[in-house]
Amino acid sequence: MLAYVTLGTNDIEKATAFYDALLGEMGAKRLFDNGRLYFYGTAPGAPMLAIGGPYDGQAATVGNGVMPAIATPDKEAVDRVYAKALELGAADEGAPGNRMPTFYGAYFRDPDGNKICICKLG
């Protein structure tokens, strides 16, 4: 259902370095950019994550209550990606664990303060 989610940044070089390394852990890569937004995904036509500065030219800010969740194929990937995020400077928002019988997830904030969930559904 989702095409992509955009996360704002005030430091595109730092943000793309973070997401290049982090999403590479999941087999994703930069697919394309338009000079302002950098799109990451696993294949054309699959859901993507975009990183970039706001269209209005104002400073990027963190949305209270905004949290994209990125699915992984297994619990080990959740653990690995969460550890990589912290290694890259992300702030812990919740260590990996079962939150519900069919949901295993971990939470962190990227260097710009955006909250992200990495999860295994089912």
Describe this structure in words.
The longest helix is centred in the first third of the chain and has 13 residues. A hairpin with a 6-residue loop joins strand 3 and strand 4. The chain is globular, with a radius of gyration of 14 Å. The strands form two sheets. Strands 1-4-3-2 form a four-stranded mixed sheet, covered by helices on one side. The chain has a four-stranded mixed sheet with strand order 5-8-7-6, with helices on one face. The mean pLDDT is 96. The chain has a single domain, classed as 2,3-Dihydroxybiphenyl 1,2-Dioxygenase, domain 1 (Roll). It is an alpha/beta fold and 122 residues long. The relative contact order is 0.21. It contains two helices and eight strands, in the order βαββββαβββ.
Query: Which class do the helix and strand fractions yield?
Result: alpha/beta
CATH class: Alpha Beta
Largest sheet: 4 strands, mixed
How many discrete structural domains?
Answer: 1
Please count the beta strands (DSSP E, at least 2 residues each).
Answer: 8
CATH-derived architecture? Roll
Globally, the shape reads globular
Tally of helical runs: 2
Concise overview:
With 122 residues, the protein is an alpha/beta fold.
Keywords summarizing the entry:
122 residues; alpha/beta; 2,3-Dihydroxybiphenyl 1,2-Dioxygenase, domain 1; 4-stranded mixed β-sheet; 2 helices; 8 strands; globular
What is this structure's SSE topology?
Elements (H helix, E strand, L loop, with lengths): L3 E5 L3 H13 L4 E5 L3 E5 L6 E5 L16 E3 L3 H13 L3 E10 L2 E7 L5 E7 L1
Parallel strand pairs: 1-4, 5-8
Antiparallel strand pairs: 2-3, 3-4, 6-7, 7-8
